[in-house]
Structures are given as structure tokens and as C-alpha cells.
Design goal:
Layout (H helix, E strand, L loop, with lengths): L8 H27 L6 H9 L15 H22 L4 H10 L2 H8 L11 E4 L15 E5 L2 E12 L1 H6 L4 E7 L9 E7 L5 E6 L10 E12 L20 H38 L15 H28 L5 H26 L1 H4 L5 H8 L9 H13 L8
Parallel strand pairs: 1-4
Antiparallel strand pairs: 2-3, 3-7, 4-5, 6-7
């Protein structure tokens, strides 16, 4: 697939708009909410809901520049602060699930509040369980059909925006659960649980290494009843056929990652760029010039480090844009989404650690933001599929191996 290296003017406008927001509204409060974990960033939420969502960003439907511009937005705002980006009122991962697996009626119903004039709303996705992390097929949460309602039971952990999405009216949580444990992955479905639904309980918030301003919730579902139509995709429930090699329900749920992984990759690029920009500014402030045109054999060690950091960053960005562009144009992008996520997660970890190394002891202290960016970086190598899981997916796609053939 051809890649244009010149962004459209509309995308350039979007980048400038969100970079200005990152500089003026996110950076000034970044350290405050890193130190005050679980505090609600009211000024940021209000500002984004009033101004940010009406800016020249993309949307979950693929209109305008679709996911490419969503990724540009993610990069710029995560350059400002990745945790505040995750805290802003959007459909987020829940929205990507609805966009990837929902019907047109479901998209209209659940995503409409994010375009309205009401109070801020959030979306979230609940997949991970105490005994089911990278292996989504090991999910134990259950969904049983009782008349015209699904009854959900189970425990979900590490739910990004789980507190906001479950507590604020108009929001929702997309919950992965099995309708038939004996069916394995074929029994996994995703369900939309609106905020405030009886039986959905917030029972805890994680204390984390990084992205500390982001609420990361533990949710408990006890006889939680939702309409039959809240099953994403189709309300029809097909019996498991052991002769079938796959199941559209599970594949539809997994398609969520094809949409969300490029966004996470873009987040990583934003954090990595924040660190690289700061390193270059500090070097320039001390009169240290990076000689881009000098022969590699004549470069000093720090110059080589900076050039390698920039190369890693550019490679991650281009892989991200490719996966996002394919998503926008309706092309299968599972391989490309995992490639972007794996590359960006590794790149941002290396870049932020190298930034601390180059700048020395002050960068390891809270005198500089670099130590925060290093802490914020690592999650991009973990959530939405760990580095190892995404590399495994890439290998399977390239070799055309099934999950049973390559584990």
C-alpha cells in the first residue's frame, strides 16, 4: 500500500490545533495530576469537552480523514500528557469496539452522546480479568440470555476510563464475556453496558507506575442485566459448531484491536517525541549541536544516540499511519496494526530511557518531566496486547499460521 509522506492540509491544521492545546492546557497541569493520582482533572475535562472535541480531529466512523487524523490527534495530545489524553471525555476504546463490531443502529445509539451538547461522557472497554490477560480466549466472565436480556457476571481489571465510563450518565463500558465456556473463543462476545446499569459496580482504582492521571478501574458485574440488542454486531446467537474453524463473534470482538492498536502506537509516538524534543532543546541550550550531515564515523556518541532515537520515532509513526490509513479505507489491517503497536511500544521505551540516560541525574529526579515520560512510556508496550503478543500476531500473519500452530 502506497504511503503519502505529505499530510493533507486538513491534517496539518488538526496537528497545529491539538499541539496548541497540549502546550497551553496539558503541560501546565501535567505534573500536578501525576502527583495527585485519582484526582479528577476538571479543568482539562471541561476544556476538552467545550473546545477539543469540536476541533479538526477525526472520528470513530472513518469520516473525514478517519483514523489517520485520530492518530495525529493522539500523538499531539500525548506529547502534552498521555494520562490526561486517556482521561479526556471520548468514546475511546469502547468507541473503537462499537465502530469495529457494532451495527449502524448500535453506532448511532451509543456514540451519539459524544457528539451532543450534554455533559461530558466516556466510553471504556473491559477485557482483562485476574486470570485472563493476554489470552482473551481465557475469559471467564459470563453472559446468559434470560428472555430479552443478557445477564452478565464476572470481574474485570485494568479498565482504562472504567470509573468515568461506568459512573457518568451517557457513557458505557464494552464488556467481553462468554456465552458458552465449552465453545472456547467461539463463545466470546462483547456487550455494551450503559453507565449506571444496576449490577455494574466500581470496586477499585489501580495505583500505577505511569499514566497516573488516567483512571484504571476494577469493575464487578453481579447479575447485571442489559437489553438483548446490546450484544455488539448481531442479537442473533448461533450455536457453536465444532467443525467450524472460527467464529464471527470472537473475530468481531478481536477486530477492536485493529482499530485501537494504531491509536496506542500514536500515543507512544507522542510520548517518545516529547522526550526527544526535550533532549534536543537541552543539548541546544548547552551549546551542543547535533550534526545531521556529518559522516557517521565522525559523530559523537550523543549525536548517534539522537539520530537513532529520531529514526526509531519516524519508523513507528509511518507504521502507525499505514495501519490507520488501511482502517480508514476499510482494508484488513490486523498485521499492520500489530506491527505498529509492537514497533512503537519498543521505540518509546528505548527513547525515553535513553533520554534519561543522556540528561543524567536531573532527568531521573522530578526536576525534569523526562522521568515521568519514561514511566508513562512503558504502558504502551503492555496494554492492547503486550510486545510479545503483537510479535506473535505478526509472525502468524506473515507465516499464515493459526494460533494452534504458533503459540
Amino acid at each position: 500500500m502506497a504511503i503519502s509522506f505529505e499530510p493533507a492540509q486538513s491534517t496539518i491544521d488538526a496537528r497545529e490545533f491539538y499541539h496548541k492545546m497540549a502546550v497551553e492546557q496539558m503541560r501546565p497541569i501535567s505534573r500536578k495530576y501525576d502527583l495527585e493520582e485519582h484526582a479528577f482533572p476538571q479543568e482539562w475535562v471541561d476544556s476538552y469537552w467545550k473546545h477539543g472535541r469540536s476541533g479538526p480531529g477525526g472520528d470513530w466512523s472513518g469520516a473525514n480523514d478517519g483514523f489517520v487524523r485520530v492518530c495525529v490527534q493522539a500523538e499531539e495530545l500525548c506529547w502534552g500528557d498521555a494520562a490526561l489524553y486517556l482521561r479526556m471525555p471520548t468514546a475511546a476504546l469502547g468507541g473503537s469496539a462499537v465502530a469495529a463490531a457494532g451495527t449502524q443502529e448500535q453506532k448511532q445509539k451509543f456514540l451519539a452522546p459524544f457528539q451532543g451538547d450534554g455533559p461530558p461522557v466516556w466510553g471504556a472497554m473491559a477485557i482483562t480479568e485476574p486470570q485472563a490477560g493476554s489470552d482473551a480466549a481465557a475469559i471467564q466472565a459470563t453472559a446468559e440470555l434470560d428472555g430479552d436480556e443478557w445477564v452478565l457476571n464476572g470481574n474485570k481489571i485494568f479498565c482504562t476510563s472504567g470509573e468515568s465510563a461506568s459512573q457518568h450518565e451517557g457513557g458505557f463500558v464494552v464488556v467481553w464475556a462468554t456465552i458458552d465456556r465449552k465453545a472456547g473463543r467461539a463463545g466470546i462476545k462483547s456487550f455494551v453496558v450503559p453507565a449506571g446499569t444496576p449490577g455494574m459496580k466500581l470496586i477499585g482504582l489501580e495505583k500505577k507506575l505511569g499514566i497516573r492521571a488516567s483512571d484504571t478501574a476494577t469493575l464487578l458485574f453481579e447479575d447485571c442485566r442489559i437489553p438483548r440488542s446490546n450484544l455488539l454486531g448481531s442479537a442473533e446467537v448461533k450455536k457453536h459448531d465444532p467443525k467450524r474453524s472460527g467464529d464471527k463473534g470472537f473475530k468481531g470482538a478481536m477486530a477492536t484491536f485493529d482499530a485501537s492498536r494504531p491509536i496506542v502506537a500514536a500515543m507512544a509516538v507522542g510520548v517518545g517525541r516529547a522526550s526527544l524534543d526535550f533532549v534536543k532543546e537541552e543539548l541546544a541550550r548547552h551549546g551542543y549541536e547535533v550534526r545531521y550531515m556529518a559522516p557517521r564515523t565522525e559523530l559523537r556518541s550523543i549525536e548517534r544516540d539522537v539520530l537513532e532515537m529520531e529514526a526509531e520515532l519516524h519508523a513507528a509513526r509511518l507504521l502507525t499511519w499505514r495501519a490507520a490509513s488501511m482502517m480508514t479505507h476499510g482494508k484488513p489491517n490486523s498485521l499492520e496494526a500489530s506491527m505498529a503497536k509492537a514497533k512503537a511500544g519498543l521505540a518509546v521505551t528505548r527513547i525515553t530511557q535513553k533520554a534519561v540516560e543522556i540528561l543524567g541525574p536531573p532527568a531521573y529526579s522530578k526536576k525534569m518531566m523526562v522521568e515521568k515520560w519514561m514511566r508513562d512510556a512503558k504502558i504502551n508496550d503492555i496494554f492492547e496486547g503486550t510486545q510479545q503478543i503483537n510479535q506473535l500476531i505478526v509472525a502468524r500473519r506473515i507465516l499464515n499460521y493459526s494460533s494452534s500452530m504458533l503459540r
